[in-house]
Write a structure and sequence with these properties.
Layout (H helix, E strand, L loop, with lengths): L2 E8 L3 E2 L5 E2 L2 E8 L9 E5 L25 E2 L4 E2 L4 E5 L31 H14 L5 E7 L1 H12 L4 E7 L7 H15 L11 H7 L2 H24 L17 H12 L6 H12 L10 H5 L5 E7 L7 H13 L6 E6 L7 H4 L5 H8 L4
Parallel strand pairs: 5-8, 5-9, 6-7, 9-10, 10-11, 11-12
Antiparallel strand pairs: 1-4, 2-3, 4-8
Helix pairs in contact: 1-2, 3-5, 3-7, 5-6
């Protein structure tokens, strides 16, 4: 599989939904495969909260491959011998695109809290500008899960002729109180952690002492992402072999799992980026700028394929079914499909249980649906 990683610089101001402006910014992106002669094989991949542009393949020094490596690659569902795949790192993320810890031109200090709050529409607008600069004015498909699914929905509404089809997995048309409440745990944990230093921390601080607040917030997220079925299957009521049952801080295996994953997270993910991305997800509403969701969905012109997961406890299946039902009520039955996958890994099923929907995705891309 041919993999290329590049950085695009933009000096034309990006006008944001908030009224603020990013005077200049960078987007790092990764591509897989090659564009065919008529540019009809391009697929855009949109990533979730903690994802990045590195969706597939493995660098020489990496312990793990890209976050959707079981889905994208030569001979895989998104077959890079057939398709040219492009994945950008969202603005605001901490993996190479402009973010709160980037240093703006003319300054010696990072943006930190001076960085603007972004919406999903802002992120998609920046991506669209990148694609235009690459000579890409139409793509075969846009595919994304969770926050990536929000972006996919945004494309279908705001750029309705850009893609032949849009495939949104494990997402929602607007963030409900349940997901906002889970994000609130992370936000408060980070803000009130002394190690956060009111946003004045350095990267060396994170490597040296980690950030317990971000770790605790990540635990709340992990519980929702993994879901009860997966936790029951993996751990049951098994107790840590090294801990005594009647030790006050003795742990069940599920507690050890949360500690290990959560306390390693601050070593790779920036807390300010986490705060800003949580805000972006919290304020997402596909009806923003319209009176009602049907007003927005009425703009959809490309095929919109919705995939939910039965045990997703972050964005519940009925949230995606609502989009489908509105599309039907709008007389757009020929433009929408909905499938609920019987899953066992909660919200993360779109990453973990690819075998359960890969053939369906192949059919969608080959227009056999």
């Amino acid at each position: 599989m041919k993999i290329e990683t590049k950085i695009a610089q933009f000096n034309t101001p990006l006008h944001l939904e908030s009224g603020r402006i990013l005077e200049n910014y960078e987007i790092i992106y990764e591509t897989y495969g090659e564009i065919n002669e008529d540019m009809s094989n391009i697929i855009v991949i949109c990533h979730a909260l903690s994802g990045s542009h590195h969706a597939a393949g493995r660098y020489a020094n990496e312990a793990k491959p890209g976050w959707w490596d079981n889905f994208i690659g030569d001979g895989k569902t998104i077959d890079t011998t057939k398709y040219f795949v492009i994945c950008t790192n969202n603005l605001g993320s901490c993996f190479g695109s402009t973010s709160p810890m980037s240093v703006p031109k003319g300054s010696s200090e990072p943006y930190r809290f001076k960085f603007p709050v972004l919406t999903i529409s802002d992120i998609v607008k920046a991506q669209k500008r990148l694609f235009t600069s690459l000579g890409i004015d139409h793509v075969k498909a846009i595919i994304g899960g969770s926050m990536g699914g929000m972006q996919a929905l945004c494309y279908s509404i705001e750029y309705p002729t850009f893609a032949d089809c849009v495939i949104a997995l494990a997402t929602t048309a607007y963030t409900r109180p349940w997901a906002i409440a889970l994000n609130k745990i992370a936000i408060e944990s980070i803000r009130h952690d002394p190690a956060f230093k009111n946003g004045k921390y350095t990267k060396d601080d994170l490597l040296a002492t980690s950030l317990p607040g971000l770790a605790i917030g990540r635990m709340a997220g992990l519980i929702a992402y993994v879901g009860p079925n997966s936790l029951n299957e993996k751990f049951g009521r098994n107790y840590a072999a090294t801990d005594g049952l009647y030790e006050l801080f003795g742990r069940f295996e599920v507690e050890s799992y949360l500690e290990y994953n959560a306390y390693n997270f601050p070593k790779i993910f920036d807390p300010l980026s986490y705060l800003y991305i949580c805000k972006t997800m919290n304020i997402f509403d596909a009806a923003r700028g319209s009176d009602k969701l049907p007003d927005s969905l009425a703009k959809v012109k490309s095929k919109l394929h919705l995939i939910s997961f039965s045990d997703d406890v972050l964005f519940f299946p009925d949230e995606m079914e609502e989009i489908y039902n509105i599309m039907i009520e709008l007389g757009k039955k020929d433009l929408v499909t909905y499938k609920m996958v019987q899953s066992q890994h909660g919200h993360d099923s779109f990453l973990v249980e690819v075998d359960k929907f890969k053939d369906y995705i192949t059919e969608l891309l080959e227009e056999k649906q």
